[in-house]
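Please produce the structure of this protein holding PBG.
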Amino acid sequence: MNFPVTRLRRLRKTEAMRSLVRETHLRPEMLIYPLFICPGEGVRKQILSMPGVFNLSVDEAVKEAAECAALGIGGVLLFGLPEAKDEQGSGAWDADGITQRALRAMKADKMLDSLVLIADVCLCEYTSHGHCGLIARDGEHYAIENDSSVALIAKAAASLAVAGADIVAPSDMMDGRVEAIRTALDAAGKQDTPIMSYAAKFASAFYGPFREAADSAPQFGDRKTYQMDGANLREAMREIDQDVAEGADMVLMKPAGPYLDVIRATRERFDLPMGAYQVSGEYSMLHAAFERGWLEPERAMMESLLSIRRAGADFIVTYFAKDAARVLG
Ligand code: PBG
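Below is the modeled complex.
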């Protein structure tokens, strides 16, 4: 017998052979594209740290969504940049708020029927201080209040569902918000609207460019008292347990690339649908390397997405959604 008997290279000889034995696949319908909706008309404002990503007024966002639908992309995730901000973030639950208007415009457009419209639910884009909850001040000290924030977040979720969101996705990381949102949705007649909770969301440096895109950087302090410590895997499982017990229909992990082990652990332990969010910093970092000619754009992009799928994600929120859908054809 010739040595070695096992020659794994036999199955790598041609693209046809590799394709036959490929274990993980990407398809456009498992990609979700984030949209940042801003006031005005005809506005398409480039986000400096995210090449190819824009702040879009409602009319432009509808066009962008139509492009996504034509590419076979599964859904869009909506973020709002309101006209005005206040301490409470009242724009988040305004029936005529920026995201609510975008949702209504998108629901009215038949061309967008193939897209799942997902509304991010949080206060940070709407609060003057940029935190994801209400601030309680005590002299020099401040704290992000949990329960009063949850009540407002639940109100925002119901308002977004009524405006047309197919899924609501709370990204605030307050305790108890999934249950409060479920109750608010049911009370608003939205028993059939699923909740996709950002169940394990880490306090990450990789959100940097997003905060320019969504104008949501905290004006003081950081998010470490509500978003998770990046060192903790077991705690991530407890977060997911909690959200599942409160009625989450699906979960979203975030960021993706630096937390592939958390995605894998979640896949092995939970049976509900799970997405992963390849966040702004992951996108910008790759783009910076593309611009310098240091990485091949298409290959590096597809490899980054494939690794998230291989880790176990059913779907991926990514700023590469359109580019990847074009590659996938
Ligand atoms: C809002 C929110 C953030 C992101 C999604 N929802 C920012 C944050 O928590 O600071 C980040 C997305 C990205 O970086 O692409 N709570």
